[in-house]
Design a protein that fits this description.
Elements lengths: L9 E3 L10 E4 L5 H9 L4 E4 L4 E2 L6 H12 L4 E4 L2 H13 L3 H9 L2 E4 L2 H9 L6 E2 L5 H11 L5 E7 L6 H7 L3 E7 L2 E2 L4 H12 L5 E4 L2 H9 L10 H9 L2 H11 L3 E4 L2 H9 L12 H14 L5 E3 L2 E5 L3 E4 L2 E4 L2 H11 L8 H7 L7 H14 L6 E4 L3 E4 L5
Parallel strand pairs: 2-3, 2-11, 5-6, 5-8, 6-7, 8-9, 11-12
Antiparallel strand pairs: 1-16, 4-10, 13-14, 14-15, 15-16, 17-18
Helix pairs in contact: 3-4, 3-5, 8-10, 8-11, 9-12, 14-16, 15-16
Amino acid sequence: MSPEPASGARGRAPQEQHLAGVVVVVTSDRRSGELATALERRGAIIRHSPSLSMTAVEDDADLLDATKRVIANPPDIVVATTGVGFRGWIDAADAHGLAEDLVAVLSRARIVARGPKARGAIQAAGLNADWVAESETSAELAQFLLAEGVEGARIALQHHGSGADGLDEEFAAAGADVESLIVYKWGPPADPALLARWALKAADGEVDAIVFTSAPGVVAWLGSFSDESDSSGGEDALDVGASGALERLKARCRDGSLVTVAVGPITAAPLRAVGIEPVVPKRGRLGALIRELIEHYAQRAAEGIETEAGRLFLRSSCAVIGDDVIELSPGALRVLRLLAANPGGVVSREQILARLPGNPTTNHAADVAVARLRESFGDRAIVQTVVKRGYRLRIRAT
């Protein structure tokens, strides 16, 4: 992950790197490194704050017991809900010397998959999917099997994570004997304080984007804002909730200064339930998620301010001008935001003082703050002094 940069540090940001300087919080545990690397290659600054942890399948006694029951009492129907979950199930069986027996049992059953990735995992195990839910939703899968009829059938149902998709209950209510297998169980975050800290930073304007890859992860992340003392985040969640952070975060989402990205509609649902509308790719893939985030910022390119030093973009913790990422102190960033709010307009010293921490009262303090801002930009003349009036951005003449 990227280290915390010092104020004024510069990095090259080619024009096509629309994520240059964008602080992205990655909330996933699994595949977080892959996601972070892909975003960093495009200029993003990554902060990893997992909202959940996962139990390794090899250490899951419940999964092992359920697998033995499937082998001893073969199912009529096998439901694979995720590719990673199905592969994890086979790998866990293999770790205990049961993979050959399990695959033999599954080969005699009717196999249905919730999407192409699950089908790919089925094929990788040397099996064939008899039907695939192209919408990749549990609802379509349930509708198909219930229409076919499952009364009296034994169903082995592979879940991933929380297992809370309602399929067990629907099939059982229709008369099926359901064996539920939860692969990679979700658990509390390894560092609840880290989760709460980045939730608060997101609410307070220190984050540009948050990426979610699972619905349980979203629920756990939202739980860090809970003001209930028995919430999953413990005292850290209580502190965040008591500060009204969730409402501030929702306000940032509404004004566009913070973007949330969900890998698919199922992941997006808990966000929408609390009034946050995330960006959702058409296909539920990490690659599609990355492209959607890039496209989001590409579409905002017109929001840049044309200064004499180049096009200026403001991020949560830095500025991007031309091909340079300029790290700024909180005070310098406040001054720059004030100037950028009225491009080319004059900002008085009194207005600058009102934005600075510590409630300074002298014009000298305002002049020092502007001097530090100029220093951060080096030889790029971005701020102009307006004699006896204040300061303004040097806007490129059109």
